[in-house]
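[job 0412] stage=complex_fold ligand=26Q status=START
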Amino acid sequence: MNDKDWIEDNTISEIEPLPADTRSMAEGFNRYLRNHLGHFMGFVPYYLYEALALTVRDRIMYPWHQTWQRYNQPDTRKAYYLSLEFLIGRALGNHLLNLNIKDQTHDALLDFSVELEDVIDEEPDAGLGNGGLGRLAACFMDSCASLDLPVIGYGIRYEYGMFRQLIEKGFQVEEPDHWLRDGNPWEVARPEFEQTIHFGGRTEHFHDQEGVEHVRWVDTEDVIAIPYDMPISGYRNQNVNTLRLWKATATELFSLADFNAGSYSEAVEAKNDAEHITTVLYPNDASESGKELRLKQQYFLASASIKDVMRLWERTHADDYSCFAEFNVFQMNDTHPTIAVAELMRILMDDKRLTWDEAWKITTSTMAYTNHTLLPEALETWPVDMMQRLLPRLMEIIFHINELFLHDISMKWPGDSERQARMSLIAEDGQKRVRMAYLAIVGSFSVNGVAALHSKLLCEGLFRDFYELWPEKFNNKTNGVTPRRWIAYANPELSALLNDKIGDEWVSDLSKIKSLESFVANNDQAFFKQWDDVKRANKQRLADLVVDACGVVFDVNSMFDVQVKRIHEYKRQLLNILHVIHCYWRIKQDDVDEWTNRAVLIGGKAAPGYHMAKLIIKLVNNVADVINNDPDVGDRLKVAFLPDYNVSKMEIICPGTDLSEQVSTAGKEASGTGNMKFMMNGAVTIGTYDGANIEILEAVGEENFFLFGLKADEVEATRHQYDPQAIIDNDEDLKAVIQLLESGHFNLFEPHIFDDIIGSVKSPHDPWLTLADFRSYVDAQDMAAATYRDREKWLKMSVLNTANSGFFSTDRTMQEYNRDIWKLKQS
Ligand code: 26Q
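[job 0412] stage=complex_fold status=DONE, emitting structure tokens
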């Protein structure tokens, strides 16, 4: 199938909207279940989900088609969000909310004696992302659809998403997540829009009749990219945007040589090779550079997406690219898709025959780059020799970009060869490597960080030289989260209370939630009681999840103290555990006057190759085991490690949380977004002065936030005089905690397994300065515990957190991207 086989539809009537009343929904559901899926007696729960998803999808098709038509007008400027990750989670409940058809769908299922909530729970998470960056992309898509912004998401249709995490004897075990096993009722395959992607081969330089030099990329091994579209419905606005995910398949010609030589199985092997490009998501949230297949994924996404955009462009503009930049803008989600800079250059020059200067002008006015990390070791680089082998033409282009760029640098700073080496797109110390972040900066007209502090530190640190050269490129766009999924869908009881008290405008304009403050100002006791009831119901739901998953019983009267996020040393789950051990020690010492009962929940996945992160999981589990089974402890302290943290679990976790743990080493967490989900749901934060915590603190006021720890500049100043042993010697509480750990109390039958952890926190070279913040963390925790006992005070803090969360809606974030970078018309 091919775009060229297109047959204009002039016979069939236009698509019509379908009714969504209870009766129509029941009929649609019944027809899918029986006539389409062929299930007649007894229901397999998964097929109920599939039938319902298809019934709902039918109602999405009409607005989806209408939206495409508007976007395909030649004068519609569009943005393309290029991302290796979209952590969507489940779609069914979200579409029901957005289309406003939840009640009738619920009623329709009653005819079949089926509970809607049970059907919703059958949907597997689309876990096509690692964590924050991938979930951010999903929240962005939701907001763009809800704001009528013509933004198309481009990503990869991984056959296997983020691995499932099992815990065996306290250790993480990874299991593949074959989320597509039973099909995906939301996607629509569009094989007619396939693209051919080239790898390998070599380049040929030649001159045309006018003597102009051109380049051909020849003898390539090709792979076919097939797009699968997922609908992204807006909130009650008849707008449905598209997330286009690419799947790799072999070309028919791929293995012709083998085939002709009679090597059937070799030919099939080649086909498998091609398809492997989109088989699995790389499960690292900090870069593990150098894997060839990962580079193939990146180029595959970038090339297929750019070609798709050009295909659409040529429908209306043929080969005229002069005003391409006026109507198209690409937003690159971190450096992962940054090879797009070189790919756009290649196509414009080699295929469309533009000059270098013409192509460069278009490229640098259509590309924009978002950075998500401050850790220098997480900046992506690719070995030059690998790029030369896999993408020879692109490597040539990168070399030429670098040549021209370094020439500009030498004109601006004559003789400053150190600066040239620092800024070069090619790192020459050791094996030559391409610095993808620098390619992104040079090739983009906009570079943004994801929280105020992060953007400031980028300009002062990591990208200082580039900021000096092009200050106008740099800007901040503080992250957000979508209030549809993270309040309206995840917390229906809170939503009902909000709607009752302040109306429902907050759903599409979260700034409206500020009016909740009046209930605090008026000291409205009846309201506080309702707020408390909602929180308790949500805590019960969370406690049910915890007892199911971990066998640990949480009492809803205790303070629910939660840290869920990827496991990483800079996020300092270790600091949290040290505090837990401190609490345990106090209980053992009977130091429990004025005690606040605490239920501590920790969850998150470790990259499979990250030894320390995996050991941290084991430590949490061992500490939990000892504490939960010690009869002296009882309900004073419970600890659980929740396996397989994901989007669906967060939907239950954040509404039921009292205390949100955001304890990264200052200057290391670019933004954080979990912090925002907790805040919206009325949790109070205990956190460092880092990432978006700072903006949360400013929004809610320091009296409603438990701030502790060194600030980013203090962290840097402390490093070279850091003496953890002295800190231990001067703090009796810390001494007791470290002694307990070193005694092997938590690993009685597993001697020495935690030595690496103990060694890391006691090392003067510990980059995360965990012990430096111990005292101030424990003091802040004591303050939180004392405040929690003052019910009214705590409830007010909780309300004020929700009331001041308006800024952290991705609707605001997207409006800022649009105002400063994309400049699209809301259409
Ligand atoms: C790189 C190379 C090879 C394989 C994988 C990767 C890779 C994959 C994912 C590197 C990084 C990521 C994800 C990073 C991430 O999630 N960063 C987080 O982004 C959030 C959204 O902006 C921020 O809130 C967090 O602070 C930041 O850590």
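The CA atoms of residues 588 and 631 lie 10 Å apart.
[job 0412] exit 0
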